[in-house]
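Chapter summary example.
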Amino acid sequence: MKRVIAITIGLLVIGLTAAGQANKAAAGFTTLFDGKNLAAFNTIGDANWQLMDGVVQANKGTGFSGD
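The structure predicted for these 67 residues follows.
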């Protein structure tokens, strides 16, 4: 029983520490690409930027995509 309690407390501490680090790393930064959409990008030029299988790509046109 003591072992189960010790393991549970250990996992909680690890989980809370990881969650705190994730919030700390995100403070002050803007996510440009979340793997789901291109909403944070400002496209320049006439490239046909699109999201395919989690990758941003264009197969025609000129320009670039960025912040």
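To summarize the output: The mean pLDDT is 75.
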